[in-house]
Design brief:
3-stranded antiparallel β-sheet; about 200 residues
Length: about 200
């Protein structure tokens, strides 16, 4: 079966019986599908009615083609919290405003840290390479910012674990270039020999 659809008449054209039977007495235009309708009516007029055979849909054109039997009841799309855009006609778009989104730590999948623990990182200026230096370190998290720029590895940092010496005591080794105990033992041995010799001379 062929679908006549909409026919445009020109001035002076003879109106044949077939034209009357296929178009004039039909108030609803019939098309095989929406593509055929668009080809025949690229710029529809508000109020046009068309029937689509492939979907058995009766459609009315307002600003877009819509089913007469199920026109829908959405009159506007309004952007809510953390959304922008929307509209009351035609195609509308909603955009997500990421700056307005707050995700509680408890909603992050597989996260075991508390919000307080995550906030420890607030203000930390170390980069990933510097943080990786802490792999295996047993010191507390309060030292994270102190370690910004540190090049020592975890083994070297762990040398401080258990140290009870004060800063002043540690500064005693400033400038030392060799084993302190060896130097002391050497001084003691040299000093003892000298004293014994002096005593023997005095006793004689």
């Amino acid at each position: 079966m062929a679908y006549q659809g909409r026919k445009v008449f020109t001035a002076g054209q003879v109106l044949a019986a077939s034209d009357v039977n296929s178009t004039v007495d039909q108030t609803v235009m019939v098309f095989a599908d929406s593509a055929a309708r668009t080809t025949a009516i690229p710029t529809p007029t508000e109020g046009m009615v068309a029937y689509l055979v492939d979907t058995n849909a009766l459609q009315l054109y307002t600003t877009v083609w819509g089913d007469v039997s199920n026109p829908g009841d959405i009159t506007a799309v309004t952007a809510g919290t953390a959304l922008t855009g929307g509209g009351a006609s035609g195609d509308v778009t909603l955009n997500v405003d990421l700056t307005a989104i707050t995700i509680p730590a408890s909603q992050i999948s597989d996260l075991t840290a508390t919000a307080a623990e995550l906030n420890i990182l607030d203000g930390v200026t170390t980069d990933a390479a510097e943080l990786n230096i802490l792999d295996g370190v047993t010191a507390t998290t309060a030292e994270l910012n102190i370690l910004d720029g540190v090049t020592a590895d975890s083994t070297e940092i762990n040398l401080l674990d258990g140290v009870t010496a004060t800063t002043a005591e540690l500064n005693f080794v400033d400038g030392v270039t060799s084993d302190i105990q060896t130097q002391l033992d050497g001084k003691q041995a040299a000093g003892s020999g000298g004293l014994e010799t002096n005593f023997l001379l005095m006793g004689a």
